[in-house]
Amino acid sequence: MDYQQLLSDAMGAARHAAGTGRVADYIPALAAADPDAFGMALATAEGEVFGVGAWEQPFSIQSISKLFTLTHVLAQGGDDIWKGVGREPSGNTFNSLVQLETERGIPRNPFINAGAIVVTDRLQSLTGDAAGAVRAFLRAESENPLIDTDRAVAASEAEHGHRNAALAHFIASHGNLENSVEVVLEQYYAHCAIEASCRDLALAGRFLARYGLRANGSRLLSRSEAKRVNAVLLTCGTYDAAGEFAYRVGLPGKSGVGGGILAIVPGRAAVCAWSPGLDKAGNSVSAVAALDAFSTASGLSVF
Amino acid sequence: MDYQQLLSDAMGAARHAAGTGRVADYIPALAAADPDAFGMALATAEGEVFGVGAWEQPFSIQSISKLFTLTHVLAQGGDDIWKGVGREPSGNTFNSLVQLETERGIPRNPFINAGAIVVTDRLQSLTGDAAGAVRAFLRAESENPLIDTDRAVAASEAEHGHRNAALAHFIASHGNLENSVEVVLEQYYAHCAIEASCRDLALAGRFLARYGLRANGSRLLSRSEAKRVNAVLLTCGTYDAAGEFAYRVGLPGKSGVGGGILAIVPGRAAVCAWSPGLDKAGNSVSAVAALDAFSTASGLSVF
Amino acid sequence: MDYQQLLSDAMGAARHAAGTGRVADYIPALAAADPDAFGMALATAEGEVFGVGAWEQPFSIQSISKLFTLTHVLAQGGDDIWKGVGREPSGNTFNSLVQLETERGIPRNPFINAGAIVVTDRLQSLTGDAAGAVRAFLRAESENPLIDTDRAVAASEAEHGHRNAALAHFIASHGNLENSVEVVLEQYYAHCAIEASCRDLALAGRFLARYGLRANGSRLLSRSEAKRVNAVLLTCGTYDAAGEFAYRVGLPGKSGVGGGILAIVPGRAAVCAWSPGLDKAGNSVSAVAALDAFSTASGLSVF
Amino acid sequence: MDYQQLLSDAMGAARHAAGTGRVADYIPALAAADPDAFGMALATAEGEVFGVGAWEQPFSIQSISKLFTLTHVLAQGGDDIWKGVGREPSGNTFNSLVQLETERGIPRNPFINAGAIVVTDRLQSLTGDAAGAVRAFLRAESENPLIDTDRAVAASEAEHGHRNAALAHFIASHGNLENSVEVVLEQYYAHCAIEASCRDLALAGRFLARYGLRANGSRLLSRSEAKRVNAVLLTCGTYDAAGEFAYRVGLPGKSGVGGGILAIVPGRAAVCAWSPGLDKAGNSVSAVAALDAFSTASGLSVF
């Protein structure tokens, strides 16, 4: 399969969506991004890497980090995490408190903010440094030691983070946090504010295309676990537009408000597209368009 | 009207409800209360005071303080408070986040926790010491200089206060707090943890029976404002059992999870009943029974 | 008290609100009304009647009929009705299905549509002709034998009544209807489509100002029951603006989308104002303004 | 791949789940089923058929019919259906009214009851006989002319169908039905009450494994449409347990309260398992267990 050509064509499709998205503006650091910047990279299961556009430019990975916190909790702690967080689509906006209230502090899935706070809490208990664990993994898989948290972004998120603080306190009121709200939020902001490129993320997500095997051949997740993480990505990975993403793209994927989306082609490749302009659901307009074009042209949708 | 006899009869009715309520147990300090302790006091518009049972025993006034924070904001700041808080019954449990989410951070009324947090914030802006203002007013009206915040209770509430912290952060995320979450919650806990007796509270509530006139003859609220506060008390003062309280008792009233209820007979008297055993809605079983018996026997319901 | 003068002044106040309301337009028959038509009548407990404006012009009483269905069920069947309907303010729009779903088919109170459907069902069981019972009562109290259902309006409501049909079927699915959905809705539309004037309604509501005594001196409700109906009116009678109505007017009242509001001054009088222009909550803008002016000027608020 | 062995092993796994499910009992006809009856069939893309247990025994297909109504609307009418129904997971129980109320009569997806009512309405508009179209398709694909609606079941569903009637009226109140509520519900019950066997359904679902090609080689859906239907099945096909089904089984599937589940292995096969005992979400306990075992042993999950 000519991946380089597929990426080029996908970038062409993304160009048609340019100008329609809106950059996340709840913190100044994200608001400054160029809405129409675009990059896309693909890493095959065998280790080849392809890229187009600004595929090596670092951006704020934001919620894409939640994929890595979840897999690390699963890798270290087994299935206990599912007692504190569900794995059903939320059917509500990604930071909804309503669901928490009606479901007694158990977030619907690990990829909405509330669920990611619980996952961060558990990873903190397991490692003592949740954000550090994510950074170390990203550096190792991408062989890029420069990957780091943007401290200014993390601080800015914390400053504007009343809503996440509300979620965390609410979860704590139901006894579903092991660490203090302050510690959990600090770690949460630290892993969300990591900067990485499409190239870095495609390489870091490759283990899910390899059924759990890391770049060095060691096993992070069992085959069954890796498949199940892909299932949760498909049903819950793109906020409350997961149905639409499955319909259009047909691949497991995780998006972030920094404009990145990391998608998995099981058995084949991990592919990451990035463009800061977002749609109403918080997903990158151009990245979705590029992945849509890619899966249509390649026939690599899982369906 | 023989108020002393009415109170004695009301206490008799309350005795029949003994044993059915459950003491608030979310903090140790409240959980230690005797569920069947009972006291009741009435202060007439003219200044007479009557009492039965443990009517001079101090207890934690809790949400009854919200009546005084509201009236002081109205007394000092006018009607601006109604931009940040509504005056409709909530139709939900008293600490619900759902309503806040669907109504963009404007609490339904000043007596649910969320609304009281907003009112405390505004009183803090107006006075620099919200809890101090409430204490000073209670002391002055009751001529009891010993009224004070129980610091142990306030600290314990803060320690177990994740739910209120969630509410405050959520309100702040909608830009509806002027002070920091930390300051507002500190003041909130400080006025909720005030200890006062039925006697003290009946005297302190007397201005609402006197259409706004304080004990010393000065005016706290205009006649119209006083009537309107009574209206909000009737429709919103007893959590999500306001309809039931209006149906059974027929008087404006404010309850607290310490077991106290302060009710107003417009033009006539303020009456406070107290017993720590609570019903599911958070209102004192015996205090409601006593006020029910009182209003039925006296015919003093507003309807 | 110079009631005639008070009514004249109230009409003056209402004139200032003219032009701001919007006529109910979900059925053609109501949409044709003049938004600024206005009438107001007051019937004292002793039997005097006063009126201003179009106080003798019949209009569609709509939800005001719900006050009469409730009192007739209470008069005939005692308190059993409260097993099938609550008496708490709803905190939601008047035709909400959400509440029914979360509270297992028990409507919050007898004055929201869902609750009124349950009350109509019970009155149908008790009388075999729910709407006929309401008509007979209105005719007797007002000594106006011409009061009748407007069949065209009832038919039009039925035709556009998918939402009420949804409510009724939903209640039936919870086993909370004794009669068939078809029969209940037919009766419901028949009593809502009764035409009566301010004069008629003030006379018909007089028994609530007389603590349960009808015009002929017979007792419809016990003193206690009458007071309790007033309490439910105050907390639930004006859709989800009950708090606002209590705050501004301070009287128990029931509104209808035909533009009428019937309010009770316990011990004194029943007063009905009418003007078809509605606010967002479905209450007549000018009728609320007139009642506000009346209660302020007279000092007759219950608070 | 030895499909016969895989089915035998899956039946063995299902046997372990026996005794834990509860038969749907909202109508007598379904309540009489043996909770532990079991059958399973697989039809390959090439046309081979395998079966174990009671794989040729007809059962009530119930909501599985919704897969066929949707595909026929798409086959005939194109994408217009997506204006009247969404394609996001619902995050609520399958017959929820709440979502309809907050989203103005547009059901979340075509597989919850509300959405299926809209789809039935559109298919009725397109064909004049929605249920007949489904029956004809099932008969043709399975070469079983005996497939038919069980009229007693359909009548019983209609009799106990207040909740679906509420949904339909509510949707109609938002202008989202083209036909009358009565006609739509009649068709809805008629296609839900079709009886077919695992064998029949596996053959009828085979076109989704063949990317849109029917048994006779004609095209029902384009390749892209077929993939997209599979995506909607995966995210929405098993009520509010779609996340769990994706996690455990990893295949697009549609369940019914008759106990059947039809799952698709894209490019390979359609497989149907049946056992009447249901879990809380309304999915067959043993059928899920069998499909879980099948996808795990075969490695045929899409992830």
Automatic annotation (TrEMBL), chains A, B, C, D:
GO biological process, one term: glutamate biosynthetic process
Binding site residues for substrate: 63, 113, 157, 164, 188, 239, 257
Keyword Acetylation set for record: yes
UniProt record similarity statement: Belongs to the glutaminase family.
Protein name as annotated: Glutaminase
UniProt cross-references to InterPro entries, sorted A to Z: Beta-lactam/transpept-like, Glutaminase
Catalytic activity of the protein: L-glutamine + H2O = L-glutamate + NH4(+)
Source species of the chain: Streptomyces beijiangensis
GO molecular function: glutaminase activity
EC number, as in UniProt: 3.5.1.2
Record keyword tRNA-binding present: no
Oligomeric form and interacting partners: Homotetramer.
Top-rank EC class of the record's enzyme: hydrolase
Keywords, ordered alphabetically: Acetylation, Hydrolase
Alphabetical list of NCBIfam families matching this protein: Gln_ase (TIGR03814), PRK00971.1-2 (NF002133)
